[in-house]
Structure formats: C-alpha cells, structure tokens
Amino acid sequence: MILRNPATEEVIHEFRHATVDDVDTAVAKAKAAGPAWRAMAPADRARLMRRFADKVAEHVDELALLETQNMGMPIGSARWCANAVSDVLHYFAGAVEKHTGSSIPVAGGIDVTFHEPLGVVGLITPWNFPMLMASWKIGPALAAGNTAVLKPAEITPLSTVRIGELALEAGIPDGVLNVVVGPGSTVGWRLVEHPDVRKVAFTGSTAVGKRLMQGCADQVKRLTLELGGKSANIVFADADLEKAAAAAPGAVFDNSGQDCCARSRVLVQRSAYDRFMELFIDAAKAFTVGDPMDPATAMGPLVTADHLARVKKYTDGLDTVFTGEVPSGPGYWHPVMIAAPDYADPICHEEVFGPVVVVIPFDDEADAIRICNDSDYGLSGSVWTQDGSKAIRVVRAMEAGTLSVNSNSSVRYSTPFGGFKQSGLGREHSMHVLDHYTELKNVFFAT
Ligand code: NAP
Ligand code: MG
Question: What value does the mean pLDDT take over residues 20-30?
C-alpha cells in the first residue's frame, strides 16, 4: 500500500497489508493478555493509562505531523487532536474506578450488579480524524478491562500505529492493544467474523455500518456504530446573525468538510435569509484554503484523489452562490462552496463529506423542525436564537443526538456523543460509553 501526502501528492510511506492470519494472531494475543489486564488492581490499570496519556502528550508534535502529512488536516487542528487524544485517555483512566455497580433492595438477601469486561473488542476507525477516533475507542475499551484489536482506515494508519507504539512505551502490557493495518473488506471483516471478538465498535459510513450489523447478527455480537450525518444548523431571524454567520463556515468546512458532525445544511428563517447569506459569504471568503503545514491555513486538501472525485460528483456543475479559491499545483484541492439549490437536489439530503454547504429557507419554528428531521440521519445540529424558550422547544424536537445552542460545538469527552436514526447506535464519551464496553451482571445473594 502506498500513502501519498494529499497536499503534495508525494509518496510518504509504503507498507505491506496485514492479512487475515495477522488479525487472528492479534486476536489471540489480545485474548491471552485479557485475564491479567482484567485482574489488575483498578488503580494500577488507571496509572498505566495515565502514563499512556502522558506519552501521547509528549509526542504531540510528532503525531500532529503524521496526521497532517497522511490526511491533509491543518497542523493546528492536528495538534488539537493529538492533545485531545491525551485528554481522552486521561478521562478514561479516571473512569476506571468510577464505573460502579449498584445494590438493589430485595427480599431474602442482597442483590448487586457488576460491570464485567467483554473480553477482546474489535475497534474499526475511519480516515477523517484518525487518531482522535482511535482514542475514543481505546479509552473506554481499556478502562473497562477489555483488550483490543484496532483497525484504522488503511489510507490513514500512521498516527494510530504510532499511538500503539506509545502504549507499549508507556508500559501498557504487550497484547492489550493491538493495531492491524489492512483493508476493511478482509482485515476489518475478520474482526466481525472472529468468534473470540466479543464486540465491534465502528466509526465510518452508514453503508458499511449496516453491513457490520448484519455480520454481527450471527453471533449476536455487541456492536456500536458512529455513522454519517447531514446535520442542520438552524438560524432564526431573532438570532445574533453576525455570530451565527461567523461560526457557520468552520462548522462545515473544518477538516475540509470531512466531518461526521459537519453542519452541511444551514436552515435560515426567510425574513433573515438575505442578510444572513451576505454575512455567511463574507465569513467564507476569510476562510483560507491552502498548505496544511501553514498555521494560518483554515482548510487543507481532501484526503485522496478518489475522495476528491467522489465529492466532485456532487459539486461539478453545481450552481453556487459562493465558490472559494484553491492553490494551484499538485494536491487534492476542492474549494469551499455555498449553494442554495432546489430542495429536491440530492445534495440537500446526502452526506457529501466535502466542503460544500446548502442553505435552505424556512418560514417558522414548525417548518424548521420539519426540514431538520426530514433526513435519515440524526447526528448533530445547532440552533441559533436569542429566545431561550424557543431554543429549548426546538432542540427537544430535533431528531439528533448531539446538539448545541448558539454554538456549533459537538464533542466533549465528558458528555455523550452519538446519533439518532441512521447516524448510529450507542454512544461514545462520558461514563455512558462504558456500558457499551461491559456486560451488566446481576447477582442475588440469599441471606
Ligand atoms: P468507511 O468506508 O465506512 O470505513 C470506515 C472503516 O471501516 C475503515 O477502517 C474501513 O476500512 C472499514 N471497513 C470498510 N468496509 C468494511 C467491512 N466490510 N468490514 C469491516 N470494516 C470495513 O468510512 P470512511 O470512508 O472511512 O469514513 C467516512 C464516514 O465515516 C462518513 O460517512 C462519516 O460521516 C463517518 N464518520 C462518522 C463519525 C461519527 O462519530 N459518527 C465520525 C467520523 C466519521 P478501509 O477504509 O481501510 O477499507
Ligand atoms: Mg471507505
């Protein structure tokens, strides 16, 4: 497999794919490491995870550089991600001793619950935030006492492989965290099929997520899914339009729109539509696209030539109200685009995963909610209004799992993250995710 820097098209790395046999070896190592990891005193497991988190923090520059060269993420964002990986691992180190069971009043004895680790878990991650998505799964998997085999997307494995090495350098025992790099259809699928893998945690496309769900059915294998989105950014006429417009480009163009939480549908109340559009275009003009190694760059290239071609299928010939500039020369560049197409156009409904946003007018609160929920997806979304009661009514009516008011932020490791409808199954982050990495056991003791 050959990896190219998407900003320069230069070859940066070449490697041999893992095979299905390699996956079996990794699963066997994870299984062998399980009993000791599970039996370790919780304080010791937490201490090792903190060391791992600190190791990552010591290597932020190196990890960020790998991410930028491998997938084109601007270096400032890549540094933010590397620091976030460390924070996530620290959070779950702290969770080791806090995921407590309960005692339940019963007649004739006592009744207690235990959160038991599942065993070996298979973790499958996408290419858009490679190391960050890895940490979201490694953290809770290991904290809960499981051992893991992690398969990153084969086009962006470099930062994840390094994180695997850092785990070993930090003293996480051999076999607790294993990384296998190869295609999803063989190496990833083996984790779905392998009888010793007790759960699959997946982040990726809805299409692949559905296939995994079918694959897991055979063994009633535990499965969590973080899938695609077409999230709505709802701007009411009574909002602070300047603030909403200033934040809107970053909410969809960050990471070149390759973000499951991208607010790729902006819904604007008709009476504020023209004013908002003017402000939005101005803000998009200031959103610099270029060399991801330049700290002033807001947006880099798309991840691969293939993905660029996929995005262009949606945007070639699209009638836009604004199209930005891209660098000349090599690189998988796509300009930022704002469009106001006919509502029936597929671009208003399908996840493009590129730097293009559609702006859709609405009449009133009910209309905004109707348009927002007219989607198979339901991952994230925003509401901009200065009317607090309206904000509460609207967020409660939105069919999506991860929402914000007068902000477009989506992710905090201490708060639950995930989707409604075809955006996923289960939640990541917060103490809630630990329920997805453990079995709840109930024991009655007769007295
Ligand atoms: P993808 O094609 O679904 O791939 C995701 C991962 O699954 C990759 O590691 C891939 O391996 C693997 N895979 C593919 N086919 C498989 C199979 N049959 N069995 C097992 N594993 C398989 O998604 P992507 O193109 O990498 O990522 C983009 C998608 O991810 C978008 O839809 C986006 O919305 C979603 N996403 C969601 C979240 C969230 O938290 N909800 C976060 C980020 C991204 P290879 O690529 O190596 O073949
Ligand atoms: Mg793919």
Answer: 98
Choose, from 260, 261, 348, 372, the residue flagged as catalytic.
Answer: 260
Closest ligand to the CA of 18? 1
Mean local confidence (pLDDT), 34-54: 98
- Cβ distance 397 to 371 under 8 Å? no
Looking at the structure, give the CATH architecture of the domain made up of residues 232-412: 3-Layer(aba) Sandwich (3.40)
Within 13 Å and on the Cβ side, how many CA atoms surround 55?
Answer: 18
Ligand 1 atom nearest to 154, measured from its CA: 47
Domain segments of the chain: what residues?
Answer: 2-227+423-446, 232-412
CATH architecture of the domain formed by 2-227+423-446: 3-Layer(aba) Sandwich (3.40)
Is-same-fold flag (2-227+423-446; 232-412)?
Answer: no
Nearest to 298 by CA among 324, 331, 329, 270: 324
pLDDT in tens, 363-387: 999 999 999 999 999 999 999 999 9
